[in-house]
Amino acid sequence: VMLPLILTPMPPPIQAVGISYANVAQSRAEVPALQAYASAAGVNMVGLNAGRPDWAYFRWESHPEYWSSAVRSTGIDFLAEDNVNFTNGDLAGVHVNAMVDIFAPNYIAAHPEASAISYWGEASPLLVSTAALTAGPFHDLVLNMIEIIAANYAVNSISITELSYRIYGYGPDDLALYRAYTGQ
Q1: Which of 47, 36, 54 is nearest to 14 (CA)?
Q2: How many CB atoms lie within 10 A of CB 23?
Q3: Of 86, 115, 144, 151, which alpha carbon lies 20 to 30 A from 132's?
Q4: How far apart are CA 115 and CA 118, in angstroms?
Q5: What pLDDT was estimated at residue 63?
Q6: 107 exposed, middle or buried (CB, 10 Å; 0-12, 13-18, 19+)?
Q7: Alpha carbon 38 to chain centroid, angstroms
Q8: b/e sequence 57-81, b meaning 16+ C-beta within 10 Å
Q9: Residue ranges of the chain with pLDDT lower than 50?
Q10: Distance separating the N- and C-terminal Cα atoms of the chain
């Protein structure tokens, strides 16, 4: 018995670009060229930099202490403005991804006990411990940031970047987390 052949159409290939700026406060002059580039390249997905939990590129009303200096000095909600800039005209209908960078140097400076520890015993200046990422104040801050973005910005997805823990996760809080989870 021969079954009928059912063809499933292939989705269009993803043509993506991530938008980040060397100087966010002065980035508005770069936007038209980036829009033209994205349009000419046939971009159908754009990644917009939302910042970090301790350095946001949007007006996070419940946490103004974490607004980036660019947001503070200009008053611009860069995530909202870039969302409009990169989803209009030739770019209408693109998939919008908000990129959340998990590095936390400002948070660690204020909470050094939250720093991730390397396998050689050195504290990370950028990453919180695995335990701090999975429970507690920093964890809650990350979830709140993602929740605010999802609820208030027209994004299709949110990605978490800079989860580079290959040499980190060896502090006493991480060991306790491991033991609690595995029983070993």
Answers
A1: 47
A2: 8
A3: 151
A4: 10
A5: 96
A6: buried
A7: 20
A8: bbbbeeeeebbbebbeebebbbbbb
A9: none
A10: 54
| Type of residue found at 20 | S
In angstroms, the CA 28 to CA 70 distance is 11
Distance, in Å, from the CA atom of 88 to the CA atom of 92, rounded to the nearest integer, reads 4
Cα(184)–Cα(171) distance, rounded to whole angstroms?
Answer: 16
pLDDT computed for residue 18 by the predictor: 94
Distance from C-alpha of 22 to C-alpha of 31, rounded to nearest angstrom:
13
DSSP states of 24-90: GGGGGGGHHHHHHHHHHTT--EEEEEEEETTEESS--TT-GGGB-HHHHHH---HHHHHHHHTSSGG
Q: Decide if 60 contacts 78 (C-beta within 8 A).
A: no
pLDDT for 8 equals: 85
What pLDDT shows up at residue 156? 97
